Amino acid sequence: MESLIEIIGKSKKYRHIYKPTIERIIKDLSTRFPEKILEKKVKRKLHQIWGAYFSRPNFAKLTKRVKDRYKNGDNIKDIFREFLLLQTSTKERIPILNEFYCKIFEVTGIPRSIVEYGCGINALTYPWMNNSIIYQGYDVDKELIDFINSCFESVILSKYAKVSLGDILVDEYPKSDIYLLLKVLTLFEHQEKGVTLKILERIPSNTIVVSFPTRSLTGKNKGMKDFYRKNFLQLVHSKKWQIREILFDSEIVFVINK
Asked: Mind listing the pLDDT tens digit for each residue in 14-57?
């Protein structure tokens, strides 16, 4: 197992991935597949949960672009908006961003702190939140994390917002007023069947915001809204939680009050 961790960890595509995530996936798949095909299966799983959703750019060039545009006086939202195109889930969120957090905070109130797991590029939507909020994002990709943190530093937001390595299926959860789990629960389920309710129960916050897409990756409406609404409400029906729904054009959001 140690040698495979080193092989995956040194590979060009996956060398930036959080080591505990690689260890977790290897441990899980090693109980189901023989050693001769294990490396292939691990890489395929990593692609499914991470690589398929992200187009890797030249982060050094993008970091310089952020600094140059900020020095030029460009608006922070305008600077960050172009980077939201890099990831499928955030690209879909761009048309609704101006109302997205406003409507969520109308339900939850403006929090003092937010934790977001599986944040990816969505961390750069921080300027659409409230700039007095302390934001802590977690993701499994160190190179992406370093880029996001450099963006925050370049526009003088690093006092309030940062991203760190983290895996919700491995970590101890920090306390926060609100947890964001935006379009990531299905990814967690693909990795560990039945884990969604366990995650929601473990989170040390009274307020959790989860969301699901209402369209496929090709932009088609395939009854996804009703499918996710039905499945999610069935999942939490036994809990004495207050659930509020907020429907956007491309995303259905549930606010859980525990």
From this structure: 888 999 999 999 898 888 888 788 888 888 888 877 665 556 78
What whole-number distance in Å separates Cα of residue 18 and Cα of residue 9? 9
The verdict on residue 119 lying in a domain is yes
Q: How far apart are CA 68 and CA 66, in angstroms?
A: 6
Structurally, how many domains does the chain consist of? 2
Cα–Cα distance, 202 to 95 (Å, whole number): 32
For residues 101 and 194, membership in a common domain is answered with yes
- Model confidence band, residue 148 (pLDDT cutoffs 50, 70, 90): very high
Q: What is the pLDDT of residues 52-100, one digit of tens each?
A: 555 678 899 999 999 999 999 999 999 999 999 888 889 999 999 999 9
Q: Are both 193 and 94 inside the same structural domain? A: yes
Same domain, 143 and 16: no
**C-beta of residue 250 within 8 angstroms of C-beta of residue 220:** no
Alpha helix ranges (H) inside 72-141: 76-81, 88-93, 97-108
Q: Which of 137, 141, 123 is nearest to 51 (CA)?
A: 141
- What pTM, to 2 d.p., does this model score? 0.91
Domain limits for position 216: 59-257
In this structure, what token pair is assigned to residue 203? 């989170």
Q: Please say whether the beta carbons of 9 and 26 come within 8 A.
A: no
- Chain CA centroid to CA 64, Å: 24
- Spatial distance between the Cα atoms of 7 and 42, rounded to a whole number of angstroms: 11
Residues near 14 by Cβ (< 8 Å), separated by ≥ 6?
8, 22, 43, 46
